[in-house]
Structures are given as C-alpha cells and as structure tokens.
Amino acid sequence: VWPSLLAVAAVACGIPRDPRGTLDRVRGGTMRVGVAERAPWVVLDRAEPTGAEPRLLRVFARALGARIAWTPGAESELMEALERGELDVVAGGLTASTAWRERVALTRPYRTTSTAYGPGRAVSGHTSEHVMAVPPGENGWLRALEASFDAGAVTPAGASGASTGRAP
Amino acid sequence: VTDGTLAGARAAKHDEHARARRLEWVTIACLAPSIALVYFAVGSSQAMKTAWVEDVLSLAPPAAFLVAVRFEARPPSTDHPYGFHRAMAIAFLCAAMALFTVGAYLLAESLATLLRAERPTIGSVEFFGRAVWHGWVMMAVLALTSVPPVVLGRRKRALAQRLHDKALHADAEMNRADWQTAGAGIVGLAGIGLGFWWADAAAAALISVGVLRDGATNLKRVGKVLMDVAPTAVGTDAIDPMPARLRVALERMPWVAEAEVRLREAGHVITGEAYVVARTETALVANLEAAGRALRAMEPRLHELAVVPVRTLARPASTAAE
C-alpha cells in the first residue's frame, strides 16, 4: 500500500489534471465502480465483489482514503454509464482489444496473460492485456489508477495480484 | 540559342540548385524518422495522429521538387520542343496542394473534435521502468521533430528567393506549417495536462487557419502560373517589371519604332515574345537577331525570346498601364 500511496500522491497535485475533477472528488470520498461478472477477474457471487480486479481497486481506494460504491451490471450498461460520467471505473475482465476502446478510456494493462483461461479454451501464444475502463479525458484519474497498478506490481507476489504472468 | 552571359549566370546558379536539392533530401531524411517516431508515440491521441498525417503530407513538396529537378534539366526534344522547364510548375502545384490539404485536414479534424466534445485521453507509459505521463513524451517528440523544419524552412526560403523557385518557396511554407502545428501541439498537450480538454483542438484549429490561408494563396498563385500570368516575384503576386524594361530597351534601339513584350514563367526560366514595328526593313534579320541577344544579356532568367517583326501592335487592354 505504501508505494501506491506515494505514487498516487506524486501525481495527485500535479499534471495531468482532470477536466471533471474525478480524482479530487474521489479522494476522501466515494469511488463509483461498475462491475460486470467475468471470472476470475470479477466474481459477483458474494455480498462484495471478489476477484483480481476488485482486489486492485480496493488497494487503490485505500490509498485515496475513499470508500467504494459497487454497481453490478452488464458491460454495455456500465460502459454507457461511464461515458455519461455516472461511474468512475468499470471492471469486467476487459482486455485492451475491447470494442469500447473508442468510446471510453482504457488503462494501461495491469496484467498480461499469455494463454486463455478456462477448460478447453487454452490458446497458446495468444496474449491478452487486462485493463480497466475510466471516463474519457479524465487524465489525472487515469494516471493515478495506473500508478496504483504499478505500485501494486512491486509489492510481494500475491499481495495485489498485479504481477505479470500466467492467469490465475 | 544560348549566349555567354546566360551560360555564365547559369553556372553561378548551379551551386545553389545543388544546395536546394541537398536541402530537399535532408528534409526527406528528417521526415522519415520523424514519421516513425510520431507513429509510435501516437497512442490514442488525435493530436498526434494529426501531426503524423501532416508529416506524411509534407513529404509531397520535397518529393515533387526532386522529381521535377530531374526532368527540368533535360534538353528540348522533338516531342518536347519547349523543353521541360515547366516540371517545376507541377512541383509547385503539388506543394501548394499538399499545403492546402494539411490546412483543411487540420481544421476539419480539430473542429470535429471540438463539436463532438471529444475528451482526449492520455494515460501513462512505462519509460525505462518508470511510469511517465504520455503527454510529456508526446511533447518531447513534438519539440524534437519541430527543430528540422525551422532550420530547413529558413534556408529554403532564402534560397527560393535567389533561385526564383516557387516550388521551393511553397515547401518552405510547408515547413513553417510543420513547426507551427508542432508548437500548437505542445501548447495543446500542456492545456490537456492542466485539465482543459479542448486546448489541443483549439490550438490546432487556430494554427490550421493560417496554414489553410497559405495553401489557398499558393494554389491561386500556381493556378496563375499555369495560366501564363506575367512573371511574378517569389512569394508575392507582384508582377515583375521585366516586360516593361525590355520594351523600353527595344524602343531605344534606333531601328525600332514601337515594341511590345509579353513574357511568362516556365519554372525557373522566363520565355516569351517581343513584337517590333521596325522603322526600316534594311538589315531587319540582323537587327532582330542582335536585339534578341541584347535582351537576353540584360536578363539572365530570360531563356527564350522570339523577336517578331510586325506592321502594327495589338496591345493587350489591361496591361497598357504597366
């Protein structure tokens, strides 16, 4: 958490800033997260979302001193809400090649997997870059989230699940 | 018929033509890595995409110039009795068209971005193991790629004046458009960094108006040149006083009663006709030949002048004032 706190703080006061002030609003406030079920990245079978992406977002929220308001939904609904500025992040096992990339902003990959997951679906040599989505143009917010991913990557393996490697 | 003066003047220009060719090769050599660099720094930014398209389009003027130069030097043939001087006018047309296209593209793109209220997203990139805001990288790339056009443009502009080369001059204006849009891109990215999503598109729109105007002016000029307008100075619409000068010189010759001269530009050189009403038909052919030689000696750019004896002059209506 400490490195991510530092990384977030380093960019919080500087450039780039958000046109809509997302980062300033979320810090010490509420982070509105849309979650679409996509095991193992996002799992919605309990009261609170679990999986790699909710775990990363909890680390980020803790660094910002924010509480998370989870909104479960279908990917398309969540993306449209994100575009309208009604959500701050969408997590749903997205990859960098998602068709939504023209309409919302995608983070840098927090993780790259070299094989597909699931029984009988392993495709050797196929690379998936796992990303999350934020509102377009909120560059400070995007930068802070990406910095949190980077900081997570240097914590001991398994702490944040943000290491580069095979799928869980 | 080439006389000594003309040959001498041409030899003096030879070095400068070689310099112009070298400058154009350097331009292409600078643009190629710049195109590659911007292509990889592009990301999702519309600003950088526009800069890239502009870089690609600004290859057109130097390429057209270098092709035209190859044709221009060819001697006249039976198929091309007037030679190939006008190849340079085609290079001018290409340069003017490219400049206009860049301006139009830039304006359309930036206005569309503003109208759609598209918020440019610029995230961070890994740079030697550290996360850097992509905006800084793009600003650095833009600053780097704007240096060559500043230097090259200045040199081309000065050389174009000395060589009376309108294609080279239009290319210099393209270089100006290059560094100006790069500058606008840097300002725009800084604006985005400060949270003004419209900054980039607004800066590009502002610059594009100037580029579009330059392009339109050059298109108009190249149109005039192709329509055989009287020779004009490089980079202006001012008519060269050469025809009047030649007419006065002719009318000072004792055997000439009246004269009229019409000239046009064919690339670097000027060609045309002089119509002369002679006072006497004695030694007319020798007089005509001597007059042609004298006039060409007066004006190094005058490549070909047919001196034609006539009984009366038919002066064009609007040029009487000049």
**Strand percentage of chain B:** 5-15%
Task: Give the termini distance of chain A in whole angstroms.
Answer: 22 Å
What radius of gyration of chain A results from the CA coordinates? Answer: 15 Å
Order of helices and strands of chain A: HHEHEHEEEEH
Roughly how many Å is the radius of gyration of chain B? 25 Å
Average pLDDT for all residues of chain B? 89
Computed structural class of chain A: alpha/beta
Helix content of chain B: 55-70%
Unreliably modeled segments of chain B: none
As a percent range, the share of helical residues of chain A equals 25-40%
Q: What is the mean predicted local confidence, pLDDT of chain A?
A: 82
Strand order of the largest sheet of chain B: 3-4-5
Quote the distance from N terminus to C terminus of chain B. 29 Å
How many helices of chain B? 10
The counted number of beta strands of chain B is 5
How would you portray this structure in words?
The complex is a heterodimer of chains A (168) and B (322). With 168 residues, chain A is α/β, with parallel strands linked by helices. Chain A has five helices and six strands. In chain A, strands 1, 2, 3, 4, 5 and 6 form a six-stranded mixed β-sheet that branches. Chain A is globular. The model of chain B has no long low-confidence stretch (mean pLDDT 89). Chain B has helices spanning 4-41, 46-57, 60-72, 87-115, 134-145, 147-163, 166-193, 199-226, 242-252, 284-298; strands spanning 124-127, 130-133, 256-266, 269-278, 302-309. Classes of the chains: A alpha/beta (168), B mainly alpha (322). Chains A and B meet through strand 4 and helix 5 of A and strand 1 of B.
